[in-house]
Amino acid sequence: MKIYVCVKHVPDSAATITIRDGSRIEENITFLMNPYDEHAITEAAGLRSQLPDAEVVAVCVAGPAAENTLRSAMAMGADRSILVVADRQIDSMLTARALQAAIEADGTPHLILAGKESIDAEGMQTMFRLARYFGMPAATNAVKISLEADGAVVESEKEAGSRDILRLTLPCVIGAGRGLNTPRYPTLPDIIKARKREVKKIDLADLDVSSPGGKTEILSLAPVAENREPREIAGDAAAAARELVRILKEEAKVL
Amino acid sequence: MKKIGLFIEFKDDEIKPANDGMVTMAQGDGHELFALVVNADAAACRERLSAYGVSAVVDITAGGGAWHPDGWADAVVQAMNACGIETLMGLTSPQGRDLLPRIAAVLDAPLVMDCVGVDLDRNVARTTQYSGKAMAEIQLTGRHHIYGIRAGAVSPAPRAAAAEVHAFSAVEPTASGIEVLSTRPGEAGTVDLAEADIIIAGGRGMKSGENFKLLQDCARAMGAAVGASRVAVDEGWVPYTFQVGQTGSKVNPKVYIACGISGSVQHFAGMKSSEMIIAVNKDPGAAIIGKCDYYIVGDLFEIIPEVTRALGAAG
Ligand SMILES: Cc1cc2nc3c(=O)[nH]c(=O)nc-3n(C[C@H](O)[C@H](O)[C@H](O)COP(=O)(O)OP(=O)(O)OC[C@H]3O[C@@H](n4cnc5c(N)ncnc54)[C@H](O)[C@@H]3O)c2cc1C
Ligand SMILES: Nc1ncnc2c1ncn2[C@@H]1O[C@H](COP(=O)(O)O)[C@@H](O)[C@H]1O
Which residues on neighbouring strands pair with residue B3, listed in sequence order? Predict the structure, then answer.
C-alpha cells in the first residue's frame, strides 16, 4: 500500500526576500521543506506501521535544487521520492495536475497527504484540486487522522478550536495542520540512510499533464514596506498604562 | 458589468461582521451583487446585506440543512450556474478555507486566497506572499474567478440597495466520499483572532499558562481577543488556536499589543498588517521595538495590571 506525501520546496521563512524583475524572488537563499509538509511526512511515517507492506513516497514539483528537500523528507521517514522537475514557477492548478500525473504514473495511492498551506504561495488549495482530479474526497487542517479498514476518520480544525469529525472513504487526500503531530527531526544516521534512497526525476514536459481550466499568474511582486516609526511611551508603569489607554481611545479609536 | 457572488458567513445565526467589508470590496461600477446564503434565515439578513449594496439574496437550501463541506460547495456551484455568476468572493476564514478551494476545484477555476484587494474588472487580486514579506498582484484567467478575502482588509462603507430574496433548492449531489460524523464546538465565547479589532498577545515573557490570566483580564476590559507566540503554544501555556504567525493565524486588527514577544520574522508574518502595533517588552533591544508604532520598555507583570486598572477607571 502506498502513501504519497506532497512536499513543497520553499524559501526559509527567516530568509530576507529580494525581488527580481518585479515578479519573482532571487533564489540564492536557503530553501527548506514547507513546515506543514513536515507534519504530513511525520504522520505518514507513523501510519505506515499500521498498513501491510506500506511504502511512503514523497513527491515534489520544483527545480532540481529541491532534491535537498526530498532528502529531508526521506530522512524524516519517506522510503523514496519523486521530483517533477519544472524549469519555472507554476501555479497550484498546474501543480495539482503535475502531482496527479506523477502519482498516477508511479502507483496506486491508498492515501495522499499534503500540508494545509504552503508558506510561500499561501495558496491553501492544492490538496483540494489534487483530490478533485483523482475523484477522491479531501479534508484539510487535519489535527487527527485514524485509519480504519475502509476509511479514514479525520478531525479537521475549524473556528476557535471547533472540529469537524469527518469520515472519508479511501483513497483520500488530507492536508496536515499544525496540531497533527510534532515533526520528528532526523538523526545523523537517518540523514545518511536517506542519501542512499532514490530520488526519481521526471521532467514536467515528459508527464502526461492535461491542462487545467484556468491559471493564476503573478503580475507584480513588491516588498511590503516596513514604515513604522516607533515612539516610546515613557514614565512609570501606571503613567505608561494611562498613556496607552489614551492612545487606544484617541488615536486608534478602538475604545 | 458583472454578477458577483458573495458567500455570506454566519456565526451563531448572525451574519459575521467581516462580511460587510467584503461586500464593500465588491461594490463598484455597476456590478450586480448576489449574496449567497446557505441554510440560514436569508429573509432576516436582507436588510443588513442591502445596506452594503447587495441587490439579490440567494437563499440556498442544501442537504437537509446540515453542514457538509462537499454538499455546500456543490450547492454554491449550482446556485452560481443557475444565476449566471462567474465571480465568487468569500472570507478567508476557517470555513472559507474549507469551502472556497472545494468550489474552485469543482469548477476547475483559479482561486486566490487571503486577498487584501481585488480588481473585479481586470480579474486581478492583491495578496501577500512569502510569509507576508511581499505583496503580489495576481492575474486570474479562466471562465470563473474566485477570491478569498482577508477579514478587515476593507472598512465597511454603506451603500443602500433594495435586495430581493430568491429561493434556490440545490439538487442532492452524488455521494461525496465524506460523511460528517459530528462537529465538536470550540471554547464558548472565544473570538476568532482573524476577525478581532484588538488583540493582546503574550509570548515567552509570560512565563506560564496561569499568567495568561493577566492578559485575559486586560482583554476583557478592552474588548480584545487574546493571542500568543508559538513559544507560548509550544510550552503548553495556551492552545494552538491562540497562535499568531506564519504557522498560526494571520491577523490584521486595528491594534495589536505584544507582551513579552521578541518580534521574530515568523511572528511578524502573522500580524505585520495590524494598523497599530504596541510592544511591551523589558528589553529595549528586542526586534519588535524597532518595528512597532508604540512601545513600553518595562516588566509586563507591572504594566499589564496597570493597563487593566486604567481601563477600569476610564470605562
Ligand atoms: C518554520 C517556523 C515557523 C514558525 N512559526 C511561528 C508562528 O507562527 N508564530 C510565532 O510566534 N513564532 C513562530 N516561529 C518561532 C519564532 O521563530 C520564534 O521562536 C518565536 O516567535 C519567539 O517567541 P517569543 O517572542 O514569545 O519568545 P522570545 O523570542 O524568547 O522572546 C521573549 C521576549 O519576552 C521579553 N520578556 C521576557 N520577560 C519579560 C517581562 N517580564 N516583561 C516584558 N518582556 C519580557 C524578552 O525581552 C523577549 O523579547 C516559527 C519558527 C519556525 C522555524
Ligand atoms: N510544488 C509542489 N510540490 C509538491 N507539493 C506541493 C507543491 N505545491 C503545493 N504542494 C502541496 O500542497 C500543499 C498546499 O499548498 P498551497 O495550495 O500552495 O497552499 C503544500 O503543503 C504541499 O503539501
Answer: B32
Which tens digits make up the pLDDT trace of A19-28?
A: 999 999 999 9
| Cell numbers at A230, concatenated | 516607533
Q: Do B35 and B9 form a contact (C-beta atoms < 8 A)?
A: no
Summary mean pLDDT of chain A: 95
Say whether pLDDT at B173 is over 90: no
* Residue tagged 436569508 (cell numbers): B42
Secondary structure of B230-261 in the HEC alphabet? Answer: HHHHHCCCCCHHHEECCCCECCCCCEEEEECC
Structural domains present in chain B = 2-169 (3.40.50.620), 193-314 (3.40.50.1220)
Q: Which residues of A touch B299 (CB under 8 A)?
A: 237
Q: Is B233 exposed, middle or buried (0-12, 13-18, 19+ CB in 10 A)?
A: buried
Residue B185 has pLDDT above 90, yes or no: no
User: How many Å lie between the centroid of ligand 1 and the Cα of residue B232?
Assistant: 8
Architecture of domain A2-206: 3-Layer(aba) Sandwich (3.40)
Report the residue from A93, A218, A255 with minimal CB separation from B222: A255
Could you report the per-residue pLDDT of B77-103, keeping only the tens digit for each? Answer: 999 999 999 999 999 999 999 999 999
How close B311 comes to chain A (CA, Å)? 7
Average per-residue pLDDT for chain B: 94
- Asked if the model's pLDDT at residue B315 lies above 80, the reply is no
* B residues 243-302 lying closer than 8 A (beta carbon) to A: 243, 246-248, 254-255, 265-266, 269, 272, 275-278, 289-299, 302
Chain A contacts of B9, Cβ < 8 Å? none
> Of A167, A220, A233, which is closest to B295 when you measure between CB atoms?
A233
Lowest-confidence region among A3-7, A118-122, B38-42, B191-195? B191-195
> pTM of the full predicted structure?
0.94
**Domain boundaries of chain A, sorted by first residue:** 2-206
In this model, does residue B194 exceed pLDDT 90?
Answer: no
Asked if A176 and A115 touch (Cβ cutoff 8 Å), the reply is yes
Query: Could you tell me if B8 lies within 8 Å of chain A, comparing CB atoms?
Result: no
Q: Which atom of ligand 1 is nearest to the CA of B203?
A: 26
Whether B34 has a pLDDT exceeding 70, the answer reads yes
Around Cβ B188, how many Cβ atoms within 10 Å?
Answer: 6
Q: Which atom of ligand 1 is nearest to the CA of B260?
A: 34
| Mean pLDDT value across residues A113-133 | 97
d(CA A162, ligand 1 centre) in Å:
26
The count of other CB atoms within 10 Å of the CB of residue A54 is 17
